[in-house]
Q: What sequence folds into this?
């Protein structure tokens, strides 16, 4: 596998170590050409990130239900339909366990199901933030435990619901006199590539809409 396996319109994420811009940002494959891969220049706070020729970046993408990291360098900048950076073709690709998915703050209805053969529960809550790797939501359910395996249903605006198995990784009890409930962080597991692509696309589109409105 190498960079030539990327496809046009595929959603990816670019990680840079540039001072003041260090982080992971959503992007999209605009073109695959002989000299390299053209990716849309990511945006932060409404402005293009000034990625420079010669900068080394890491590109995360999905393939066959796995996440891969491509390490390469920027060889050019172009103004196509959208501003793009051209990344040199590279075979420096490795499968990774992502822990730094782009995350957005968003409030969505969430329903989660639990069953162990003896105990069954269905509860509701509301998301606080969401990424391609998991979700943080608030709920009044006090029976969840770290390590619990549940099934999550997220109601995405104007889209099919997102449904996935998940494992509870962290629980923060409500503070005294706080009425919102327990904050529960979950990691999506056994998720299909198409599902994750659809979720990442939704997150990408939310970010783009917020950028247009000047909310970043």
A:
């Amino acid at each position: 596998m190498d960079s030539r396996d990327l496809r046009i319109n595929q959603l990816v994420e670019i990680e840079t170590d540039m001072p003041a811009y260090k982080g992971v940002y959503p992007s999209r494959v605009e073109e695959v050409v002989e000299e390299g891969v053209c990716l849309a220049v990511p945006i932060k706070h409404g402005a293009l990130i000034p990625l420079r020729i010669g900068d080394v970046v890491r590109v995360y993408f999905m393939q066959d239900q796995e996440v891969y990291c491509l390490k390469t360098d920027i060889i050019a900048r172009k103004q196509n339909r959208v501003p793009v950076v051209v990344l040199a073709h590279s075979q420096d690709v490795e499968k990774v366990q992502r822990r730094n998915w782009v995350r957005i703050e968003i409030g969505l209805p969430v329903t989660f199901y639990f069953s162990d053969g003896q105990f069954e529960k269905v509860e509701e809550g509301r998301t606080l933030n969401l990424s391609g790797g998991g979700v943080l939501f608030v709920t009044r359910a006090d029976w969840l435990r770290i390590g619990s395996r549940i099934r999550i249903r997220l109601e995405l605006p104007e889209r099919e619901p997102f449904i996935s198995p998940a494992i509870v990784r962290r629980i923060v009890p409500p503070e005294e006199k706080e009425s919102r409930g327990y904050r529960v962080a979950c990691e999506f597991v056994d998720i299909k590539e198409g599902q994750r692509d659809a979720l990442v696309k939704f997150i990408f589109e939310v970010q783009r809409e917020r950028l247009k409105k000047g909310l970043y």
User: Anything to note?
Assistant: The first strand starts at residue 11 and ends at 16. The chain is about 10% helix and 50% strand. The helical segments are 193-212.
